[in-house]
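Before the break, one more example. Copy the sequence into your notebook; we will annotate it together after we see the structure.
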Amino acid sequence: MVRLLFSVILLAAAAHPQEKPIAVLDQCCVLSPNDIKALDRGQPIGRLIKFGADADIAIMGAIRLSVPKEAFLRWYRNVENYKYSELVEQAVPLHVPPRPEDVATFVMDANQLQLMKECKPSGCGFKLSSETISQLQSQLDWSQPGVGAKAEDLARSILLRYVTRYVQQGDAALAKYNDKPEEIDVRGTFRELLQSSPYVKAAFPALYDRLWSYPGVAQSGQKDDLFYWSRERYGFGLKSLINVSHTTTFEASPAVTVLANRQIWASHYYDGSLSITVLVDANPGTYLVFLNRSRIDLLKSGGVKRWLVKRFAPGAIRKEVTALRRQVEAQP
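Here is what the structure looks like once it is written out:
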């Protein structure tokens, strides 16, 4: 699910095979009977769940689809469909293991090349590990002609190698960002976000365990995991954002499916992100609830940036789930 304008959502979904869908929605997603009635009337819901001093933000969005959840899952598995959002410029699936052609369309503009040129430990315009920063410094001579093309090739190689290691080794391969004086452990941040969602563990303990320690494709036994990278452009003078994501599909019951999406790398802004989408049979149609919890470094300074997120994020998620419904329901 797409991250919009600094909204990262943590979706809590609790489902018991014996319970009716409306009870599931009340348990997992803090949806009241009046919220369910609003969904049944076709109204979208968007709300800020948490906005704390620690730069974490959680937003919930919900809507009712007229199609069964299998139709949404079919739409979701085609990564190209993610470009329904005006924020998403590229969305490219990754093979398992990744192949060079998966990153062939990854390009860098002049501003990004300048950020790469200026990158140094504890002071880099990209979220990179100390190992990767050292590689950039040792392999690129910015005084040489044609260095821009070489820099792009190196960036593609680094991205491909990073995802390949993650697919093979799981969480052990996740980076430690060294772009600022304070090192950020991606695995540690993700676990903190997951721990901040105790209802996930209570509702879906097997899913929680799978997310807590992902061992890699060979050890996980999951054949339907989805890996992709995307490029998002926000405007407002912000840098374009490159995300690399991993989605796990979890069948909680015949009536409830959960999609857990974790960010395994972001070029800017995000220290970590976890989103969960819960699909519940509505008979007819499907209740869709999307929660995203993220840690965003821009919010650490507080002030007007916090106010803007508080002010505009709920409306943005309502707009997003409405656009999502149009796209899913319009597919053949």
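The CA atoms of residues 127 and 308 lie 24 Å apart. The radius of gyration is 20 Å. Try to locate both features in your own notes.
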